[in-house]
Amino acid sequence: NAGVMQNPRHLVRRRGQEARLRCSPMKGHSHVYWYRQLPEEGLKFMVYLQKENIIDESGMPKERFSAEFPKEGPSILRIQQVVRGDSAAYFCASSPTNTGELFFGEGSRLTVL
Amino acid sequence: GESVGLHLPTLSVQEGDNSIINCAYSNSASDYFIWYKQESGKGPQFIIDIRSNMDKRQGQRVTVLLNKTVKHLSLQIAATQPGDSAVYFCAEKDAQKVTFGTGTKLQVIP
After folding, report:
1. pLDDT in tens, B46-86
2. Do A42 and B97 touch (CB under 8 A)?
3. What's the pLDDT tens digit per position in A35-77?
4. For residue A88, what is the nearest residue in chain B, using CA coordinates?
5. Taking CB atoms and an 8 Å limit, are A44 and B2 in contact across chains?
6. Residue in A41, A55, A95, A108 to test binding to B, most B beta-carbons within 10 Å
7. Chain B contact present for A38, CB below 8 A
8. Chain A residues inside the 8 Å CB shell of B32
9. Backbone angles phi, psi at B84, to 5 degrees
10. In 3-state terms, what secondary structure has residue B52?
11. Short-list B21, B44, B101, CA closest to A101
């Protein structure tokens, strides 16, 4: 059973471009969480999704950021018109239920030039 | 609360000694707590968890203690090894989401 898969592992974008980060949860997991991490800091919650639904997006900026978890395919975190401050590691986690352990991917590291 | 760019607190421990990492949580509604280990350049890895109806849980070389009265969580690592060097995060979960603490960097001195 493969773990949580994130891609790309590293992404470089220029200011104003779009970044798309993908997350394939573990098999049988229908709950997906996205977190952002700056160097030497903790993980900041961004959004919690179940299949086709956004459950909690309280940690995600209202502008430029969006997330989806379609019925088929991976969850996508999309950042439009990236700025330098968006440079960070973005981690995805999945869970079979909303009451237990989160399993994390290895992260996608976004660098905005 | 969230980190505001401060460096992570560091705990330095001699190899073979026991380590104790502490964490304060904020949400009285949290009913599930988890400790994660994060090595450089990698995603967080589950270490041990505890539900709010317990005050202690033991794993292999690790013990988690929960004090709900003062909203405090601790992770004890017995006979600390060089491979334990990493950043350790506590996390609390309520009905909606998992919130992470700031983290503690554990440095094991050989």
Report:
1. 999 999 999 999 999 999 999 999 999 999 999 999 999 99
2. no
3. 999 988 889 999 999 988 999 999 999 999 999 999 999 999 9
4. B41
5. yes
6. A41
7. yes
8. 99-100
9. -85, -10
10. coil
11. B44
Separation in Å, CA A37 to CA A1, A46, B23:
26, 10, 19
A7 token code pair: 């891609």
Reduce the secondary structure of B5-49 to three states and give it as a string. Answer: CCCCCEEEEECCCCEEEEEECCCCCCCEEEEEEECCCCCCEEEEE
Nearest Cα residue to B92 out of B3, B46, B43, B31:
B31
Q: The tokens of A113 are what?
A: 């030039």
Q: Is residue B73 a contact partner of residue B64, using CB atoms and an 8 Å limit?
A: yes
Name the region of A109 (left: φ>0; alpha: ψ -120 to 50; beta: rest): beta
